[in-house]
Amino acid sequence: MNNTLALRKFIVGAIFALACFAFICRLFYMQVVDDRYKLDASNETFRHVTQYPPRGCIKDRNGKLLVTNEAAYDIMVIPGQVKDCDTNSFCNDLGITKADFISNIKKAVILNTSSHASVFMKEVTPEIYASFQEKMYKYHGFYSEVRTVRRYPMKIAPHLLGYIGEVSKELCLRNPKYKEGDYVGISGIEESYESDLSGQKGVKITMVDAMNREVSGYKSGKYDTLPQPGENLTCSIDADLQAYGEKLMENKAGSMVAIDPSTGEILALVSNPEYDPNLLVGNVRAKNYGKLVLDSIDIPLFNRALMAAYPPGSTFKPIEALIAQQEGVLTENTSYTCPGAFHLGNISVACDAAHGTLQLEKAIAMSCNTYFCNVFMSMMNNKQYSTTEEAFETWRKYVMSFGLGTRLDIDLPSALRGNVPSVDYYNRFFGKGHWKGATVVSLGIGQGEMLLTPLQLANEAAILANRGYYYMPHVIKSVGDKNTVQKKYTTRHYVPIDAKYFDIVVEGMSEVVEEGTAAASKIPGVVMCGKTGTAQNPNGRNNSLFIAFAPMDHPKIAICVVVERGGWGAEWAAPLGSLMVEKYVTDTIKRPDVEKRMLEGNTLQYLAMEKNQPRVKHKSKK
Amino acid sequence: MNERRNSIVPYVDWFTICIYGFLVIIGWLNVYSAVYNPNHAGIFDFTQYYGKQFIWIGVAFLLAFLVMLTEASFFSVFAYFLYGITVFALLAVRFIGAGTKGSHSWFHMGPIEVQPAELGLFAINLGLAKYLGNENIKMSKSTVRLRVIAMVIVPILFILFENETGVAITYTSFIFVMYREGLSGNVLLVGALTILLFILSLMGSQLVLTYVLIGIALLAFVIFTRRKRKDLIRIGSILAAGLLIVWGTNFAYNHLEGHQRTRIDVFRGSNVNVKKEGYNLHQGEIAIGSGGAWGKGFLRGTQTKLNFVPAPATDFIFCTLCEEWGFVGASFVILLYLVLLVRIVFLAERQRSAFSRVYGYGVASVFFIHIAINVGMTIGLLPVIGIPLPFISYGGSSLLAFTLLLFIFLRLDANRLQILK
Which of A64, B37, B149, B207 would bridge with A239, disulfide CB 3.0–4.6 Å? Predict the structure, then answer.
């Protein structure tokens, strides 16, 4: 009996061994075969904390700060750690109600559970934060995180600079650089130079415990990457000129674009109605953005300088004169007689006055419609071309070579191309063979289907200033410390017009200011060449336009001013343009009466009257 | 004779003591690693678990030494007395003891806390050994069987009464002792089948199991018997017992209280939220799995150290070990345990007295069930049952209890040649 029982030691031993064998097998499976657990482990213990780089600042051509960064504070909360909170004093410090407090906490719990940190309040201003911070030690579970927000010290050029906002879901999917909640440039320079301004995010790897508390850095930061700050940009605009332009444009709808013709750098880019760029910053962005978007009277977010297209009116006449000379159908001595209107068949185009018989220079100075209708007709009837279509196509190619009706490759988003109608367009509209030069003669005086943007008109002025070429307009002089301008902004674009044909046109333009339509806008001591435009507007009062450059020799500035509903070109656009030129060229205004009249003028009333609604102001007086 | 009495050193089984020492040191290092914190870097910092464990190890060594100095006959003479005191303490602690989570299993005596269910294991074992070691007692007698079972069942009932289900389960390990002493192997088989059926009915569907059991019964009846009435009754009653286990388990599961039911849910992997109830097990498995073949290295574990695994120094210390020492280290410790168990069985078999042999088997069985349940639950083969891993888990009470258990046996073993058969 005992002997058989003694054998049982083997059974007992076998049971022990079997169990141990089972455990070892299971461990082998878990630790060696299956790597599911390893992946889980690295997710759970490392926390990758994003280090945000400061966004690049933007300065003007003279080094004045246009956009800078300011600290803002996100108040963070870990709901599970909040206890014994004196909500009354807490809410007072942050300027919120108790209901806000409760709903923010609830939101945080829903978003990230109560043991994880969530944003309680976003981008609190330094003033509020200062008072809150002193007492923060009393509020368990709350802490702050610094981030930067944009500031615009001079409160100018909102359309040019643009704004930043939270990145869209689509962009996150498209570009792995962005994660939800990141900020990205949405318009203006902020958008077009996003890749330079944004810098590189860094990552700090920390270890967290099961309570999601940071325990320590990982391997003394060996795998951390430092954030690379964004590049600082030097903008080509002159902040003083820009500010002056914005002041002049108050209560007027329209825009001003000033270009340095010798480089293509934009000196000022004003679009009014505008808004204070600081409105679209920090935790007030959403509220203000809604207001700006919904304002259908002023459309303040609309960048008229790049996106509004107007019939150029008489400001187109210098181009017309250049093309006709190049085509050999016009010389400085060609003369036409103006009886007060242009008549051809059943078509007639009115002129401001009966100018009598005049030659090219005078025709430009007096802006004679009859003269330029005849010029246009002479081109359309040019014997060189067998059909009107062919003649028209040639004319159109010339026009487009001035950058008109094409999208200028400016370093800002959303510049529009305007419209120079094509042969196809008229063939579709009238039928092939059912139109001729006379049908579209109003194009010769910048009316009809032609639509150009202020930027294109300013560029036209620059071409005239340079007597035959232009640099692509741009707003950024340099990126970072390197003084490198993109190559496309340093190549000259020549128009196919011989330089000799410019002299007479420039003479005519100087006469415009000297004794012609813009005589009231003469600048003492500066010879300015300009051209007014009074463009018919089917919706209401005429638009007032002016293009100019100065000084006549070695021009330093080329400008275009458009005042919607302004009436005569000489009434608003020319004096406004002359003030800008005077300010930039001489740095002082010697015509206080003109300046006063312009500052006090209000053409916005006409726009509001048309829409029959009261206006909202988005910008306080500077 | 005098010489022998004065020096037992040559007769002590130093091999077992070495394994014991090895395991205790492994335990201490893992406790250190489990709660390692650079701010309290010193391994002798007595405010920390590892510092305290160091003291407990010292106390355990002292206790072992004292046991070795004790006359071997003391244990045999006082066996029933110690058994009686323990059973009394098990009952008393229910009324004057304290505990956590609804259990009443700890005596608080000033700074010292004692859990009689754990500490008393050696006494129950001694009582059992005393009774079975008796020359005239044979397991073949049904009265003997009943008495032996009662000697184990009574403490189990008291411990259940204390609401310490986990510890109570460890007492069932004495079934191996009974088996060695002559209990039918069928009992062991039935026990194993019961556990298997129990686990299957926890994991599987009641209905499917019922059909499978009926199917097996029918097959067995048709193929292996002569289809007599006697066979029908025998197979029928086995089937009935099986079905009783399946249905009983389901009934019990449906009437379980919150946390116990959750543990079962976690084990079954059903209705489980890995962030909540399943957290312990899930995190434990991640910790083990992330250790890989070679482990992350001493003090380099991340999961256990960063509180992802609860109780990384006590019940779940095997996680820490697996994470830092990998498959190689964990297998080594398991093999070390196996060597210890087999060594104790070997020592038990060389005893001249039945008392010593029974006691030795008791020690091996108690160690085995602790190791099996603790490791089994940690690696997800068994539901979570909160019992310590012998010699490795942090905790003075359990370390002293296991040390006492082992060294009494080593003392008896050292004395083996003086016993006349």
Answer: A64
